[in-house]
């Protein structure tokens, strides 16, 4: 069904069945997206983007995922069958960022914060290029261990979300290390939401996966919130009462290997400073969160360039309520929608 312009998909059953239902529900949209310069990758890259040329890289990533997370690999294959697209096309949808590689000049790439003071909350903007606000979906997933609410873009099995064990996960792009065939961060988050019973369990899972690319993950439970920075095979767990993250490494051990462009780093620091100066609103202060997420510099406005990141969604996750509040699009102009596992 469709709520405020973003579809809500109920996915249950075995992995292939979940993927098939996802693909069938969005079949026309996903086929149109793939036909738009190969999932808009051609609009974002200075080099030609050809599926045949990308197949070896896709296969290398798929092999790692199939070995490490076989249920999710089967779900991707189900997505292809349901949508009537090639298997490699379904995998490309999970790997768009990794196939594009580093882009050191960014206008923004998500601002995330969390707090457990007076109630747990995790909130963030989603800043992406490619005009992806027309590709948003919410997945209500009954996984092998937990149910979860998952924000998705263009066929992704995961992006961020909250599960019925009271674990919420958000993410930020950070640039560093070698990007290599592995588990894309979005599938890693879906695995955590499917599996994690606690913050410690979520951290253990993130530290044990062979990730394809660098990211920062913010994990919030009912009593504790942490950031996990990933650089190659290294992980850093940052403890803070009110963790906040943008797009530069915060761990001093990783900061010297940060590959972000100096101008993008300045933007990243401005957004982080804005959150810290404003202070994180109380968990139940939805208006306060919306105001912070809808105000520049945390809000990254559209400048008309498809290659530049802009805020295409904002979310507030409540681990205690098992709730996802979503503004699908520019949060300063769109209506809120609320989803709950209860």
Task: Map the helices and strands.
Elements: E1 2-3, E2 6-11, H1 15-25, H2 27-35, H3 41-44, H4 51-68, H5 70-83, H6 87-100, E3 112-115, E4 121-128, E5 136-142, E6 147-153, E7 160-163, E8 168-173, H7 185-195, H8 199-208, E9 215-220, E10 225-231, E11 234-239, E12 244-245, H9 252-255, H10 262-278, H11 286-293, E13 310-318, E14 323-328, E15 337-340
Parallel strand pairs: 2-5
Antiparallel strand pairs: 1-2, 3-4, 3-12, 4-13, 5-6, 6-7, 7-8, 8-9, 9-10, 10-11, 13-14, 14-15
Instruction: Briefly note the structural class of the backbone.
Output: alpha+beta
The CATH topology annotation of the largest domain reads as Penicillin V Acylase, Chain A
Q: Strand sequence of the main sheet, in spatial order?
A: 1-2-5-6-7-8-9-10-11
- Give the N-terminus to C-terminus distance in angstroms: 18 Å
What count of domains describes the coordinates? 2
Q: Report the order of strands and helices.
A: EEHHHHHHEEEEEEHHEEEEHHHEEE
Assess the beta-strand content as a share of residues. Answer: 15-25%
- Can you say what the CATH homologous superfamily of the largest domain is? Penicillin V Acylase, Chain A
Shape: globular
Helix amount, in percent?
A: 25-40%
Provide the CATH architecture of the largest domain. Answer: 4-Layer Sandwich
Instruction: Give the integer mean of the pLDDT values.
Output: 95
Radius of gyration: 18 Å
Major sheet size, sense and barrel closure: 9 strands, mixed
Tally the helices: what do you get? 11
Low-confidence stretches: none
Query: What is the CATH domain class of the largest domain?
Result: Alpha Beta
How many β-strand stretches? 15
């Amino acid at each position: 069904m469709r709520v405020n312009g973003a579809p809500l998909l109920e996915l249950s059953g075995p992995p292939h069945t979940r993927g098939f239902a996802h693909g069938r529900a969005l079949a026309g949209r996903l086929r149109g997206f793939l036909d738009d310069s190969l999932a808009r990758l051609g609009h974002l890259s200075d080099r030609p983007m050809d599926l045949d040329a990308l197949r070896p890289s896709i296969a290398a990533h798929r092999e790692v995922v199939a070995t490490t997370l076989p249920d999710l690999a089967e779900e991707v294959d189900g997505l292809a069958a349901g949508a009537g697209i090639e298997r490699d096309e379904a995998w490309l949808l999970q790997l768009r960022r990794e196939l594009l590689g580093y882009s050191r000049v960014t206008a923004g790439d998500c601002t995330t914060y969390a707090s457990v003071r007076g109630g747990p909350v995790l909130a963030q903007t989603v800043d992406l290029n490619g005009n992806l606000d027309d590709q948003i979906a919410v997945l209500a997933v009954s996984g092998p261990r937990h149910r979860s609410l998952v924000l998705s873009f263009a066929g992704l099995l995961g992006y961020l979300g909250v599960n019925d064990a009271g674990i919420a996960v958000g993410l930020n792009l950070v640039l560093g290390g070698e990007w290599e065939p592995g588990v894309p961060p979005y599938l890693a988050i879906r695995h955590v939401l499917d599996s994690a019973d606690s913050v410690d369990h979520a951290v253990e899972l993130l530290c044990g996966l062979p990730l394809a690319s660098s990211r920062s993950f913010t994990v919030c439970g009912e009593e504790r919130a942490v950031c996990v920075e990933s650089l190659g095979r290294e992980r850093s767990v940052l403890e803070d009462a009110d963790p906040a993250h943008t797009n530069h490494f915060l761990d001093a051990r990783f900061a010297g290997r940060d590959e972000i462009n100096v101008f993008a780093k300045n933007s990243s620091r401005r957004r982080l400073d804005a959150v810290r100066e404003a202070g994180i609103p109380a968990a139940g202060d939805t208006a306060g969160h919306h105001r912070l997420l809808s105000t520049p510099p945390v809000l990254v406005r559209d400048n008309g360039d498809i290659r530049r990141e802009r805020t295409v969604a904002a979310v507030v996750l409540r681990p205690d309520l098992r709730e996802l509040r979503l503004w699908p699009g520019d949060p300063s102009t769109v209506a809120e929608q609320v989803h709950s596992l209860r």
